[in-house]
Every structure is written in C-alpha cells, then in structure tokens.
Amino acid sequence: MKKILLLSDTHSHMDDNILKYAGQADEIWHAGDIGDLAVTDALQRIKPVRGVYGNIDNDKARMEFPLHNRFFCEGVDVWITHIGGYPGKYNQAIRRDIEMKPPQLFICGHSHILKVMFDKKLNLLHMNPGACGVSGFHQVRTMLRFVIDGDKIRDLEIIELGRK
C-alpha cells in the first residue's frame, strides 16, 4: 500500500503547507511545470519524488525529469505527462499511444483545473490535480492524495491549499 501526494504546476512555488502534506505521503508525484528545481529538491528531502517536466521547465528540469513517466506503483499501471488532455480530448501527440495501450491511471497537469474523470471507453482513471503554485489563472490552489493498494486506487481526497 502506498499513499500518494499528487501535485502540479508549482511554477517555482513551495510553502510549508505543501511540505506538511508531503510528509504524510509515501511518494510524491509532480505532473510538471515545476519551475525552479528547488521545489522538487525540497520534496525529495521528505519523500521520493516521481515527476515529469512541463512546458515552462528549463533544460535542468528536462534533464532530471522525463516528458512522460510510465511505471507501475504496486499493481497499477501509471502514466504521468504534463500536457495530456482528458477523456475524449487527449493530446494529439499521445492519443494513439494511450488508445493502443491505456494505463490504469493517467495523470496530467497544465490546465490548472482540478479534474478527476473515468474514461469508460479506455477503462482508465484520469487525474489532474490542478495547480498548487501561485502563478496562473486558478483561484484556489489544489493537490490530490490517494492510496494505491495492490491494483486498486482508493481514498481519493482533494486538498485545497487556499486562495493564491
């Protein structure tokens, strides 16, 4: 069983509230637009971090994190990318791959809009944690946390960090 903290679009922002939730997780997953790598460095001092780079990330972030990160956590096939779209409107660059071999859990960031949807056609769960940074059009900073237990994803919670 693994407790996961999922965040995205920090845009170089880190604060004690994010770090508090990071300490309660077993792993931290970042869905891109990290900004300054001091963000992931701070998180990695607390718990292991898996992530991807986003469209605002520089060459240092792109050397540390991949564009796509596909892995198994427990028995769940996970795919994280920054610009992924959502069910029915996946990013054209990945649409064929996701349709040919869908993961069980598909995660992206970029939109700054928290969204969790089940794709009935591909039988996958889509998650976008919104944005926990202070840059962008979103009004409320958000993250997600959940548990992966074997091949099950359960106990999903929205974490609201307040207005930016």
What's the helix count? Answer: 4
The low-confidence parts are none
Specify the structural class.
alpha/beta
The share of residues in helices is 10-25%
Shape: globular
In N-to-C order, the SSE pattern is: EHEHEHEEEEHEEEEE
Please describe the biggest sheet, giving its number of strands, its sense, and whether it closes into a barrel. 5 strands, mixed
Beta strand % = 35-45%
Identify the notable features of this structure and list them briefly.
alpha/beta; 164 residues
Describe the model.
The protein is of the alpha/beta class and 164 residues long. Helices cover 18% and strands 40% of the residues. It has four helices and twelve strands. The chain has helices at residues 16-22, 38-44, 59-64, 92-100, and strands at residues 2-7, 27-30, 49-51, 68-73, 76-81, 85-86, 89-90, 105-107, 114-119, 124-129, 140-149, 152-163. The strands form three sheets. It has a five-stranded mixed sheet, covered by helices on one side. A five-stranded mixed sheet has the order 4-5-8-10-9, with no helix packed on it. Strand 9 (114-119) and strand 10 (124-129) form a beta hairpin. The longest helix has 9 residues, at 92-100. It is globular and about 40 Å long. The chain starts with a strand and ends with a strand. The model has no long low-confidence stretch (mean pLDDT 97).
Please describe the topology of this protein:
Elements: E1 2-7, H1 16-22, E2 27-30, H2 38-44, E3 49-51, H3 59-64, E4 68-73, E5 76-81, E6 85-86, E7 89-90, H4 92-100, E8 105-107, E9 114-119, E10 124-129, E11 140-149, E12 152-163
Parallel strand pairs: 1-2, 2-3, 5-8, 8-10
Antiparallel strand pairs: 1-11, 4-5, 6-7, 9-10, 11-12
